[in-house]
From TrEMBL:
InterPro entries: MutT-like (IPR047127), Nudix_hydrolase (IPR020476), NUDIX_hydrolase-like_dom_sf (IPR015797), NUDIX_hydrolase_dom (IPR000086). It comes from the Bacteria. GO terms for biological process: DNA repair; DNA replication. It catalyses: 8-oxo-dGTP + H2O = 8-oxo-dGMP + diphosphate + H(+); 8-oxo-GTP + H2O = 8-oxo-GMP + diphosphate + H(+). Its EC number is 3.6.1.55. This is 8-oxo-dGTP diphosphatase. It is an enzyme of class 3 (hydrolase). Its cofactor is Mg(2+). PROSITE patterns: NUDIX (PS51462). CDD domains: NUDIX_MutT_NudA_like.
Length: 130
């Protein structure tokens, strides 16, 4: 199966976490995710994350500690989701590609409809920050 690496960010501000709803034109439309995107060849996941967050939310982040990598098989592709805690250092996020974004308390995350790969990560975030 084709495998892709995807870096994503758990951005925490004043106890709340930035989450994004995938838009109708995107794969997995209508599901929530942590912002991020595919890691290009010859790119470190941290670099990919900084690049993707500039493109899709117009923000600059500092990448902090890594969280636990999740490997998930969708029907057509295997993804390695590589999460990091991150801190917003410049800009106020705007949903350029997503349907909308929200800041949620960690304890409110589990009830959202998530992309399948994110479920273990959501649990880790609740354990760590909830
Ligand atoms: N950003 C992000 N993608 C995720 C998460 N969980 C998850 O399964 N994915 C999947 O990983 C893939 C990442 O694709 P993307 O569309 O965000 O990446 P990208 O911006 O580089 O895509 P592009 O090729 O359309 O430019 C999608 O299939 C997406 O559904 C997550 O928490 N965050």
């Amino acid at each position: 199966m084709n495998e892709i690496e995807v870096a994503c960010a758990v951005i925490v501000r004043q106890g709340r976490i930035l989450v994004a709803l995938r838009g109708s034109q995107m794969e997995h439309a209508g599901l929530w995710e942590f912002p991020g995107g595919k890691v290009d060849a010859n790119e470190a996941p941290e670099q990919a994350l900084i690049r993707e967050l500039k493109e899709e939310l117009l923000i600059t982040v500092k990448v902090d500690q890594p969280l636990t990598v999740v490997t998930h098989d969708y029907s057509n592709v295997r993804i390695r989701l590589i999460p990091f805690l991150a801190t917003l250092v410049d800009g106020e996020p705007k949903p350029i590609e997503h349907e909308k974004i929200e800041w949620y308390h960690p304890d409110d995350l589990p009830v959202l409809p998530w992309t399948d790969a994110d479920i273990p990560l959501v649990m880790e975030v609740v354990d760590l920050l909830g």
